[in-house]
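Note to self: the last two entries modelled the partners one at a time, which told us nothing about the interface. This time every component goes in together.
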Amino acid sequence: MLLMQNSNSSFKTAFKFWRQGVHSSVARRFVLATVLSSTLIAIFITSFQLYISFQNDLSELHSSIEDIEKSRLPSIVDSMWSIDTTLIESQLQGILKLKGIEYVGIITDEESIEFKTSNEIINQTTYNYPLIKKEDDQTFFLGDLILLVSIDHLYEKIITQGLIILFTNTFKTLLVAFIIIIIYQVMIGQHLTNISIMITNNKDNQKADKINLNIDNSKNNELVILQNSINSWIEKNKQYNNEQEQLNQQITQQRDTLEAINKKLNIANEDLTQFAYSASHDLKAPLTSITGFLHFVSKDIDKGDIKRASFGVSKAKKEAEHLSLRIEDMLELARSDMAINHWEPINIDNEINEIWSSLQNAYFNTPCSIKVIHNSTQPVILVKSRFQTIIENILSNSIKYAHPDRLPVKVTLEINHSENNIAISIKDNGIGIPEKFHNRVFTVFQRFSNSDTPGSGLGLAIVKKNIEKLNGEITFISSDQGTEFTIIIPKIKQPELLNSLSTTEQDSI
Amino acid sequence: MSVKIPIYIIDDNEADRYIISRSIEETGLDCTIEEFSNGEDFLSAIDQTSIQNNTDNIPTMILLDINMPGINGFEVLENLEKSSIKNDCFVVLMITSSNNTRDIEKANKHYLIKEFVNKPVDEDIMLKLISKYYP
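The predicted structure of the combined assembly is written out below.
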């Protein structure tokens, strides 16, 4: 039962392969070519064989005829001499029995004895042997022995043999063709089909799967080699595509970075243009005033009015000082931009106290007090010079723009630590910043009070620049009761790392 | 008897005020100069006094700066228009360091502003201007 099932399933498999092969044009052509060439060769060889066989038979016939002449003829002559009719007849019959002899006969002057076969003769050859007896010295002519030899039978033989070979060969060919298709399909065809199916299915280069022909991979035959090299191509293709994608991503990233840098550059450029415009305008004013004053001073000197002249000179001097301060502050602003950040731990309270004492000395005429609220004594990692500039500028503003009716100046400075930032708020009770100027507070050369009070209008621009360089931000609220600035600076964990970067690298973080 | 020309200077910058008033003085013309360092002071001053009571019937020349803290030059004019003072009581000239095209346009369109002058001025400029409006 099991054997039957096994053989049944092998038949099914064989049939399946046969069907596949028949549908494959390659298989059909293969089989056709094989069978055709095999058949042609068979035909040639068979023809040759038949020819040889024919020749053999022919020579056999000839030698048999020779044999008649050599061995039988003398005995016939003897029988004729002794006129043994019976013997002659049986001898002749014996000759007739030989293959190819169709007629044998002895013809004398008087009579003839003939024997022939009943075959139809188409091709024949006549052999004539004179019967000659030599006795003593005399030669007696007894008659003629006539043979009719036909090779028809040889031709028949070839034809028969040929037909048999033809039929068996045809049968054999069909059987072989059938089997070859199956063998071809099993050994080659199915793998070709599988390869083409698997490769066609791999349309998406990214997800290409390796092809598996289900063959014994340990053998080193062409199919295994083909399978493996296709797979290695698929692998390479995947890699290549991955690299391409990575490269594309890199390019996109780089392009984005470049765009961002470009934007920054444009902004910086605009800032610069604005600054140049404001600067030239605001530097011109004191200079114009100086020229104006000196114009009248020279008139006063001509008139001899020394008092007025000296008044004019002192005014011109004051303007020159203004100009000088302004230029100083512009340099300060430029320096804030260019300076390299050196990050180190700072004791905030100490710095604030130092700055406040020196401000108190500078503005000794204005009574002022400060209250510092700081819930930690931990040092904070900052750039010392920038921190000092920021605090000094804001605190000096608080004193400079004090409200005359609300003295002494009261400043509250509060510092709060969170995990990632420190927040510094500085509140004063001064005259505040009028609302219409709120959007210009940190722009260069903006002043909102009388031109006579000292200050170049760059203080808050300098503060903002320094805060930016610390990666922080500054906001404010202001009313006529006073102003409060809030500064947020991110905490730095690894100053050594930052200190090793160049300024531009730090800027781009 | 010549009538003194009343001139008001409104400018927050002391040096500029000095230069303007010195320039006027050096013209030799007979003028009375009053200086104000901001627009509010000027407006409260004219509320009280002289322009309305000007019996000599000579308009006051107002030399107005644009950029001042507090209210600027244009805002001073707005307030002036709203006041009860008649328009022919004064001649307004804008003297400013601004060469902002918007300011120039605004001044040219304003019917009260007779001239737009760039700082610095000197006595020659003031002479021409004052002579133009007080022949």
